[in-house]
């Protein structure tokens, strides 16, 4: 990826991680094209000098138009929800849409692809820290999001091995920071904690990374990543209690002290899903999320650090930047 000639296509650039990748590319001097649905919320593209190719992962013809003439492809887009009324819609985007885009990229002669997977596809070590080689199967995947991302990564790997797809795979952990317009499930936790609405928490843990570091990790993967190799783009492993306590410290609130048993949350999550089926609005808590929270999802970015030069900043800074952005943009008053 020497130099900055050639257009880069970024999918998902209206979203959280994709927008950060687009910003990082522009900062490095790359011309950027983004794939966007006509009615997408484009707040994350304000002020960015990007070309917009209208289309979607469900429309193969629009994908062919979007990748035409591109040197690099960063496929960041995904349907990221922990609850969906119809999982088939998520599979169409995350699995079939990914395969269609990869085929279109090969047909267009794209030089290098960075596929954004997720640590959700990796195995989890009980009481330990997982890495890119921690084994997992589709049976280990809880919920349609994890299953769809697992199957999408399998599809990408098959195209690499059988068709010579020039793709590097990155597995971000839990990004937080500026630009979380939706916000993501973790962003919603931070917002509620900053509002003082999180009096208790379950005993779980996450690997927290600044979204801008994750974005830079994508560029590093494009530059020096090995085709077909996985790279975890993470930060620090923190318990949920530690994350919420840091939000409390930043906002001057009292940290939550009530640790809630997982089984006590399950009826609430089931009720929230029942209400969501009536309203169509995504529930704050889901049964799958509670099931996932029984394990601490801790990961190591040692491979990305050693092979790519990935250097994430402290989680405290990521949390502070997330809270500051949510305040400035009216999520927290």
Tell me what you see in this structure.
This protein is of the alpha/beta class. It has a domain at 7-177 and 209-237 and 299-312: NAD(P)-binding Rossmann-like Domain (Rossmann fold, 3-Layer(aba) Sandwich), CATH 3.40.50. The protein is built from 11 helices and 12 strands. The protein starts with 6 loop residues before the first strand and ends in a 5-residue tail after the last helix.
List keywords for this structure.
333 residues, alpha/beta, Rossmann fold, 7-stranded parallel sheet, 43% helix
CATH H-level superfamily of one domain? NAD(P)-binding Rossmann-like Domain
Helix content: 40-55%
Strand order of the largest sheet: 3-2-1-4-5-6-10
What's the total number of strands? 12
Mean pLDDT over the full residue set: 91
Separate helix tally: 11
Rg estimate, integer Å: 19 Å
End-to-end Cα distance: 43 Å
Can you tell me the CATH topology of one domain? Rossmann fold
- The top-level CATH class of one domain is Alpha Beta
Strand % is: 15-25%
Low-confidence stretches: none
């Amino acid at each position: 990826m020497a130099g900055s000639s050639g257009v880069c296509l970024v999918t998902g650039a209206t979203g959280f991680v994709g927008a950060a990748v687009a910003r990082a590319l522009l900062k490095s001097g790359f011309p950027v094209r983004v794939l966007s649905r006509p009615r997408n919320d484009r707040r994350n593209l304000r002020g960015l000098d990007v070309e917009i190719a209208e289309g979607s992962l469900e429309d193969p013809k629009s994908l062919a138009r979007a990748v035409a003439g591109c040197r690099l492809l960063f496929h960041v887009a995904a349907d990221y929800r922990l609850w969906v009324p119809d999982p088939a819609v998520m599979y169409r985007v995350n699995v079939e849409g990914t395969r269609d885009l990869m085929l279109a990229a090969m047909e267009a002669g794209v030089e290098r692809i960075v596929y954004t997977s997720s640590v959700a596809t990796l195995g989890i070590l009980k009481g330990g820290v997982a890495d890119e080689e921690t084994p997992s199967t589709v049976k280990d995947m809880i919920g349609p999001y994890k299953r769809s991302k697992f199957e999408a990564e399998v599809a990408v790997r098959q195209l690499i091995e059988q068709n010579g797809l020039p793709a590097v795979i990155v597995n971000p952990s839990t990004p937080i920071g500026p630009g979380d317009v939706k916000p993501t499930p973790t962003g919603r936790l931070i917002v509620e904690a900053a509002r003082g609405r999180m009096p208790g928490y379950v005993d779980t843990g996450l690997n927290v990374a600044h979204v801008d570091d994750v974005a830079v990790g994508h560029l590093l993967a494009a530059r020096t990543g090995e085709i077909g190799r996985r790279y975890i783009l993470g930060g620090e492993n923190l318990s949920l209690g530690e994350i919420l306590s840091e939000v409390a410290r930043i906002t001057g609130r009292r940290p939550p002290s009530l640790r809630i048993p997982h089984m006590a949350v399950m009826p609430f999550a089931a009720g929230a899903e029942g209400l969501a089926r009536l309203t169509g609005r995504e529930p704050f808590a889901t049964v799958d999320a509670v099931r996932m929270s029984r394990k601490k999802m801790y990961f190591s970015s040692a491979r990305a650090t050693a092979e790519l030069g990935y250097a994430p900043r402290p989680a405290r800074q990521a949390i502070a930047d997330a809270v500051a952005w949510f305040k400035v943009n009216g999520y927290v008053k």
